[in-house]
Amino acid sequence: MTTTADSTSSSGAVAFEILVGVTALGAVIAGGALFAFSAFVMPALSSIPVPSAIESMQAINVAAPRSALMVPLMGSALTAAVCGVWAVIARPAGWVLVLVGVVGTIAAFAVTAIYHVPRNDAFASADLADAAAWQSYRTGWTLWNHVRVGLYFASGVVLAIAAALPATRSADAAL
What we know:
Blueprint: H1 4-46, H2 50-63, H3 70-90, H4 95-123, H5 131-174
Helix pairs in contact: 1-3, 1-5, 3-4, 4-5
């Protein structure tokens, strides 16, 4: 017979697992969107004339913060912070893995906030004919984009495992 306390505790555990899973999904979606830039957007921009590449990237940098990309980017950072606090306070099953995933997700978002946003803002005024500015921007931007893609994917996997572990243990215990 389950008591009200057991039911409440079980509901909290399920809510935590769902929040961790949603955070994992958001991290992987953000990483996937950013991976597209590393995989084909930046290489494609590098294959066109510099003025067109600069103008295109400047347009992308205006559109990106107003796009649906912000939902998984900011949403995963926000839910990661909530998961981290919850994990430290409640210490549910898998809480150490959750913290590892939280740190990765927040680090990926920090790369965006600390490196990419200021870099994009500065690049907004680049002269369309400045090949050196484009080369410098593209090289650094792409390198740090690889870093945040790796962080988002790794943290998403870790968070997915952390979300699944308690459910796996419950299923094993039922057998």
